[in-house]
Amino acid sequence: MNDPAPASVTRAFDDNSLLQALFGPHNSHLERIERQLGVSLQSRGNEVTINGPVEQVEEAAAVLDNLYGQLRRGQDVVTADVDAALRMGGMGGPSSDLTIRTRKRHISPRSPTQATYMQAMNEAELVFGLGPAGTGKTYLAVAKAVSMMLQGQVDRLILSRPAVEAGERLGFLPGDLREKVDPYLRPLYDALYDMMPGDTVAKKLASGEIEVAPLAFMRGRTLANSFVILDEAQNTTPVQMKMFLTRLGENSRMVVTGDLSQVDLPAGMKSGLRDALDTLNGMDGVGFVQFGAKDVVRHGLVTRIVKAYDERERQMKARKSTTGDGNA
Length: 328
What we know:
This protein has helices at about 20-25, 30-35, 55-70, 80-90, 90-95, 110-125, 135-150, 175-195, 200-205, 240-245, 270-280, 300-325; strands at about 5-10, 40-45, 45-55, 100, 105, 125-130, 155-160, 210-215, 225-230, 255-260, 285-290. The protein is α/β, with parallel strands linked by helices. A six-stranded parallel beta sheet has the order 8-7-9-10-6-11, sandwiched between helices. The radius of gyration is 23 Å and the shape is globular.
């Protein structure tokens, strides 16, 4: 007798040319919404009738409205967009307000945490984006940087990573310096090419308007009128992190991204990202955004993998606390 009261709502969409994209191939988008929210969706002509518990019916209606609005703005709707709308819980207004526009993409938040992150990048001069792979931390930072450059708000983009991963050292890798560091920086190049035509990226790299460089190249510089991104920051030392943060110049923004569960520094060495969080927590002008497994926007299997690793880590910590073995 505590079952939620049933409800029924009908939505009518006036542009019939958009219905196939809204409903998905063989109504696959409607079926996805049904499965996720536990509602029934029935389409007839340009109308969709939603039946189910009141709250879920309202959320399904909001999701459909948001997806239809996306189509009306000339944007595509694919499965990932349906999942994003479901994660956003029907929050349409903030999503459209936060849209980042680049030459090749219009990018809206695909989770509430992404919306918080994008808002933080609008408001703070220094933003830390923390959490697992696949949550969009770096991609959204590059999108924001490109957007600000295209609007003339900054003159340069500087994208950097520490060149330390999985225990490797540059001196043991073949090739000249560029060949040694490029594999570490490739994800940043990939994001750039996703935002702008390839010839534009090449031209701006050649002119120095865009610079992609290992962290060591930042020493001794003051970065004014720039949008500066430090990716994989969990692999910095405290000294490197302090050096990077103190490069911030006039009319510049910095975004620092990293995952503290994936530190590749030598055992016993404190991560510069952890040190910065401990030092700067609560400071005015600094934003901190923590992503979690629920924010993973890659393949659904990635979300489950992240959750499985998180659960195993919790179990290991619980076993250590019960056995009293804090050094295991």
